[in-house]
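Input (Beta-xylanase):
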Amino acid sequence: MGLLVGAAVMVTSSAQAATTLGASAAERSGRYFGTAVAASRLSDSAYTTILNREFNQVTPENEMKIDATEPQQGQFSYGNADRIVQHARSRNMQVRGHTLAWHSQQPGWMQNMSGSTLRNAMLNHVTQVATHFRGQIAWWDVVNEAFADGSSGARRDSNLQRTGNDWIEAAFRAADAADPNAQLCYNDYNIDNWNDAKTQAVYRMVQDFRSRGVPIDCVGLQSHFTGGSNYPSNYRTTLSSFAALGVDVHITELDIRNAPSDAYRNVTNDCLAVARCKGITVWGIRDSDSWRSGESPLLFNGSGQKKAAYDAVLAALNNGTTPTNPVTTPPPTGNPTTPPPSGNCTATITPGTVWGDRYNTSVTVSGASTWSVVVAITAPQKVSTTWSGSFSWDSSGNVMTVRSNGSNTFGFTTMMNGNSSARPQIRSCTAG
Ligand code: XIL
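Output:
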């Protein structure tokens, strides 16, 4: 009887809404909520406080671009990018690499190149940079902004385009060879409106790549919404249409002029409605960090306070939108109530949502208000996202120690990586 009462209480507490963007996205639907990060701001503690609290995914805003990583031909420079990757990965945030091949922010030496010399330099750049970060990047924006605006549906003219129409697929093949485990994305802006010629042209390219086996895994919609390119009512159709090609979709650089709550809420709900929409990245934390700071397009004001749009996004993430692709089989049996083999408090596992490739777990601690819990994961499974605790890892990456940070329930998402049966084990619960 006592056990049954305990179980009922646990269900109630695991249904409580999470209070940060990343935790809500992860806990409710296995998604991420991320932000662009500038290395120069990592020394600003007001900035990193919000970053570390709210986000579980990071995209370097400029530090992985071609001019940053290969300022002189053949001389690679990774310091700022490495700093961001280290900051993110030590906190279990996933990293989106941005970007390997682009017409913009090229170093001077590349701007002056053409023909096969440029093609080879571009491919070498892709190979070197993807190799340097191999194993650390969840998704690469392999190619950025390769299509023209307007009604032509044509490729954008650029030095890279003039090396031949196959430059995009060549870049994807080089990235795949260098980092076979990263997901490879095509990223662009003004591909939000399903009726736009540019959207249709990118769609046809992805369709062609899929049919010919060119290694593309995902499409990124930058989604910089302004007066000029506004949030379209058919955005969800665009997301689901790309997804129907067998690629994931990501909202990669979201910012909206004046941050209207409605538009932010709708964009969030559109992503939640499409199973293959893996997450949302906003293009900066505070308005003062934005590349369009004059338009105040972000979720935090210059003082780091949450804006109305923040509340709208958080509520949408928490809104109980049914997780979009859960496996309908019962939750894993595993060891839901295994008592800790050691320690002086009790940590109880509640299995969460299971998807095809990953599952959530929450753990509730009783018998202590401050505590540390040791949890073991079975390789090759790997924890990809955590919430509501402070997490650290042993050198194997399979054993995590979680310290309380105010909540008596913490949670995490585990990628199955081919092993769908193993479940986390509580090793100990220690008060204090
Ligand atoms: C922007 C950065 O935010 C600025 O700091 C930089 O000066 C220019 O680039 N599309 C992209 C991003 O893919 O890389 C751009 O980032 C914004 C538009």
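DSSP finds twelve helices and 18 strands in the chain.
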